[in-house]
Design goal:
Blueprint lengths: L2 H7 L1 H9 L5 H9 L6 H24 L1
Protein name: Recombination inhibitory protein MutS2
Length: about 60
């Protein structure tokens, strides 16, 4: 992704805000490695997978 686009999106500022919320070194490392997604199809696939996982977790919590 072009630097100008990242600057317009204030991506480094957002990463800094997220980094301040991490509670582990691993979390901080992951934030530092973050880059915006450019492959929409892959992004949608990952999102769908995470939504299914979240739905499963919610159903387990509310069954208890």
């Amino acid at each position: 992704m072009r630097q100008k686009t990242l600057d317009v999106l204030e991506f480094e500022k957002i990463k800094s805000l997220v980094a301040n919320e991490t509670i582990s070194d691993l979390g901080l490392e992951k934030v530092n490695q973050m880059m915006p997604a450019t492959n929409l199809k892959r992004l949608f696939f990952k999102w769908k997978k995470r939504m299914r996982l979240l739905k499963s977790i919610i159903s387990i919590v509310y069954q208890a």
